[in-house]
Amino acid sequence: MTTTSPPTPSLFARLLARYAAVEPHEAPAVMAAFTLFFCVLGGYFAVRPIRETIGTALGGERVADLWILTSIGAVIIVPLYGWLVGQVRRSILLPAIYALVAAAFATYGVLFRARPDDALLSESFYVGLSVLNLLLVSVFWSFLLEMFTSTQAKRLFGVIATGGTLGALVGPIITDLTVQRVGTSGVLFIGAAMFTGAIVSQRVLIRIWKAPGGVGETNDRAIGGNPFAGIGIVLRSPFLLMIAAFVVLLSTTNTLLYFKQLDIVANTFADSATRTQVFARIDYVVQTLTVFSQFFLTGRIAARLGVTALLVTLPLVIMGGFLVLAVNGTFAVLATVLVVRRWGEYAFIRPGREMLFSTLDTEAKYKGKNLIDVPVYRGADMLVAQLQNALRAGGLTGTGVALIGAGAALVWAGVGTWLGRRYEAATRQSR
User: Fold this and answer.
1) What is the pLDDT of residues 116-135, one digit of tens each?
2) Which of 2, 223, 230, 259 could form a disulfide with 371 if both were Cys (CB 3.0 to 4.6 A apart)?
3) What separation in angstroms does the CA of 104 have from each of 47, 368, 428?
């Protein structure tokens, strides 16, 4: 009887196995997920500087009001998504979501070309993109949490997140190089093209997921259940409630920095195209730092030091950043804190937070997770924005805002410590 030797792993699979602890049979799924996340974040970050430029033109008070609309949109979209997950197979629903985003970007591209000074159009784009960006990332990770085990998540999520970071690097570079020539509408068409690539990548990943002997267990049936089930799932779980608290504190520090950014950039740079370039350059500095961290560090830190290290390091660093801003609030200091904050969030906080969901059931991964990722996050954005505006109207200085941010970051680190220890205990028990 003749025997056949196993196929020789590809060069890419061997490189992944050597540098990122990816087993050869996992390489096709990792590559497909990597490419999908590249397209999703590449498309989003290509158009994100447009949103930031709109924000500087509108001013802090109007942006705070728009965040109320954003939080309302987040409350509406999550039960709608929950209903769709309950009724439609993921193999149909997920590519359709990316197709809808591609069509929306192309439509806005046409409208901005026809009415470039339409304030209502700009505001609707700002709100729509703010609602969609969290949902898109949450949808991506929900599917991966279903596809990979918790043990695989520790090894693989950092590598897969690198694909998103590369996309988030390439997207703003393209915007920086092209916006002066193609304008806002041209950048939106570029974003639409990248989401078309996301449709193809998602279908490839689903094919791998559904193949016999695939990476994980396949259950493509609609989940069913109540579209509002995520509320009960979160309220009944102390673990999920603490994840929600972690997200609220993350949002608090981000929002305080965001409004500081609006003020300083508006006062430092005069025209909108230059501001768009500034935001794009901050984006690709962040992504350059992040891509190396995710590929070489995130998985190794999670495997050797635990998820707690991923969740706690950034809050402590940001606490120090706020204290520096309290003393010196220049653009150079702000830019440094923004880069560090976003680098740490993408390289460590986001993969670590996604790992927390890996031990939960499918309904919690989709409905409970999306409740936390979208309306809880955006609701916290809105409340903190209104609160800081009220405090500043009452006489609170920029130094006072920075000190509040430092206190929130300290509490954020404490919640991260609790979550990391509970997760490590749960994974040990499951093994």
Assistant:
1) 888 889 899 999 898 888 78
2) 230
3) 12, 26, 44
Neighbouring residues of 8: CB distance < 8 A, sequence distance ≥ 6: none
Structural domain spans, the chain: 21-217+226-430
3-class SS at 24? helix
Share of the chain above pLDDT 90, in %: 25
The class of domain 21-217+226-430 in CATH terms is mainly alpha
**Which one is predicted more confidently, 273 or 162?**
162
Q: From CA 165, how far away is CA 291, in angstroms rounded?
A: 6
Distance from C-alpha of 211 to C-alpha of 6, rounded to nearest angstrom: 18
The per-residue pLDDT for 201 is: 94
pTM assigned to the model:
0.71
Is the Cβ–Cβ distance between 405 and 252 less than 8 Å?
yes
Q: Which range has the top average pLDDT, 8-22, 268-282, 365-379, 400-414?
A: 400-414
Q: Which two tokens stand for residue 343?
A: 């680098």
How far apart are the C-alpha atoms of 225 and 247, rounded to whole Å?
25
pLDDT at 218: 56
Tokens of 15: 């490189």
Q: Mean of the pLDDT values across residues 149-167?
A: 82
Work out the angle at residue 196's Cα, subtended by the Cα atoms of residues 192 and 202, and round it to the nearest 5 degrees. 135
Q: What are phi and psi of 222, to 5 degrees?
A: -60, 145
Radius of gyration over every alpha carbon of the chain, rounded to an integer in angstroms: 21
